[in-house]
Amino acid sequence: MMKLIQVLKLFGLSGYEARALVALISRGALTAKEVAEISGIPRTSVYDVMKSLLSKGFVETYGKPLKFKALKAEEIISILKRRVNNNLDYLKQELPKLETKEVDEIIIYREDLVLEKLRQLVLESRKVIMGIASYIPTEVRKILENKSKGCKLILVSSNATEVEGAEAYEFKRKEEILSKFKDFCHGLFVFDEEKTLVIFLNKLKIGVLSENDGVIQFSKMLILSLIEFIKQ
């Protein structure tokens, strides 16, 4: 019986309401006094309890002296089920409105932190590093060559063949590009298809890191498209 009362409480009934309802279902029609005696509800509270059960639709009244009668068990279950479903529908509609939409994080690095971040990403990569750069300066080349064993390195650049261990693709107008870009480097790198890093190495060094899947896929597509163009 206690288990039944505890379960009814889970559906929004108070302890007294659950005890009164169980008494009425098991004993049939009862006066308020009889409900109090059977359920152990204080007489000073029993009328308020019965009034609440009436308002919730679980109990009917009739006769003089006034008697209370619970609905059939199937009807009570149906009422509870309908209310639970209505509450679930409300939650499905309203809870998602409270969720904070994810904001893709973009982190900007400056000066020496740009190469430090590049070094970290290269060392952490385990599958493949893909990159395109106007020109790969010595400091960047050394970082890329220090990749982990087994990690594939694919590079598109005016001097990609200078990077040891790389699958290199060089622009067809190599000499013209070298003459214009040798003093600085603009590059885009994709690490294990999980992160992208755009770097600008000139007088002002800037790096932009993103983990947005759309940016990653676009960057990969750009690099692969350039490779196909160079192969032609």
What descriptors fit this protein?
alpha+beta; 7-stranded mixed sheet; two-stranded antiparallel sheet; Arc Repressor Mutant, subunit A; Endonuclease, Chain A; 9 strands
Description:
The structure is a single chain. By secondary structure, this protein is of the alpha+beta class. It folds into 2 domains: 2-77, Orthogonal Bundle (Arc Repressor Mutant, subunit A), CATH 1.10.10; 106-231, Endonuclease, Chain A (2-Layer Sandwich), CATH 3.30.870. The protein is 50% helix and 21% strand. The model has no long low-confidence stretch (mean pLDDT 87).
Number of strands: 9
Average pLDDT works out at 87
Determine the fraction of residues in helical runs and give it as a percent range: 40-55%
**SSE arrangement, N to C:** HHHHEEHEHEHEEHEEEH
Between the first and last Cα atoms, what is the distance in angstroms? 82 Å
Number of helices: 9
CATH C-level class of the largest domain = Alpha Beta
How does CATH name the architecture of the largest domain?
2-Layer Sandwich
Global Rg: 37 Å
Summarize the structure.
With 232 residues, the protein is of the alpha+beta class. The chain has helices at 2-10, 15-27, 32-39, 43-55, 73-98, 112-124, 138-145, 174-181, 213-231, and strands spanning 59-62, 67-70, 106-110, 128-133, 152-157, 167-170, 185-191, 195-201, 205-210.
